[in-house]
Request: fold
Amino acid sequence: MFAVWLMFGVLGIPIRDEFGLSDLQFSWISAVAVLNGAIWRLPCGIWADRIGGRSAFIIMLTVTAIPAFLISRVASYELLLFYAFLVGFAGNSFSVGISWVSAWWPQNRQGFALGVFGAGNVGASITKLLAPALLVIVPTAGYFGGFIPGGWRFIPFVYAVLLILMAIAMFIYAPKKDKKPGQGRSIRSMLLPMKQIRVWRFSLYYVVVFGAYVALAAWLPKYYIDVYHLQLRDAALLTALFIFPASLLRPMGGYLSDKIGARRVLYATFGTMLVATGILMMPYGYIVLTMPDGNTREVMPWNIGVVQFTFLIVVIGCAMGFGKAAVYKHIPEYFSSDVGAVGGLVGSLGALGGFFMPPLFAVAQTWTGFPQSTFLVLFLITLAAALWMHFTVVSLLHQASPELSRKFEHSQN
Reply:
């Protein structure tokens, strides 16, 4: 589902060339898919609590296969945007899975269990790894008279087939007797936690560690191509280096959150991201000094090569991998009976961050004139989340007794 949701990060490049799109038009293809993968997360989480994750997943897999197939046949930019929006429904699978997994595991193991489930985010790298090779191997005319399309259209066709196969596999192998923590409860009672400010604070955290992850997964191939003039194959491979740790470290992040507390993990996450984005946001160039004799001199040149850039991007990905697990460790601790609803809202707002960021990146680049402004946007959002968390902790400690001055985890927050 994640591979389908974020496939336009790589496919957007040949699509841009075929349809002759501007940077802003290009950004909207990924953005509308991310949008539809965000706006239904709250109702999908509630839905999964009420009917069970097995049934919800089978329905979502089957429904998402339809627009995936239609994308392989699209002939205009307008239709492509419409189908990209529809296929983005795949992204809502995350809140269904969070509800489903938490219902099956005890609280002291939920951090690790949710981290293992969240490692499925690595699906975002599948297109990055396979698409460039398939674009070369599969003939443009496709197979069987074009029934199986060629070029970039081959990828969504294959995903449509895989979605149907996964729905069949889940129908056969997932436990028939499912757990439904929301069965029999009113929608009103399931939405009551939305009144608590901590739910919205967790959502901002998730914008930083997940919304930014989604945005970068879609934006980095273009960044590598435009700034470092790499080929699509190399740009996609380097983007995958970011995606892998950002996904596969979630189980470790969940384990650490179980052992030392989610808030400590988030402090480390935000601190690491602030340092890395603070370096990456500085524009490349130099300072020109005018000497007394009228001559000029260039001093303090600054630029980052592709190796150093990729290293810092991987560092950000590692921090996000730990941070995503830490955010979702909070939810079953504070809202054990409403994981679907709260997890859905947090996931929805986090994914909406992924929707707004690519257009923000494009606008910031147009406004400033330098592509490094991408990381200025990320730096400011991360700083806002870190400050809100820190001031919340400080406020909590001021209300508590002095012996809690070094204790970050507290049941009243």
About this structure: The CA atoms of residues 136 and 277 lie 34 Å apart. The two ends are 34 Å apart (CA to CA). The first helix runs from residue 2 to 5.
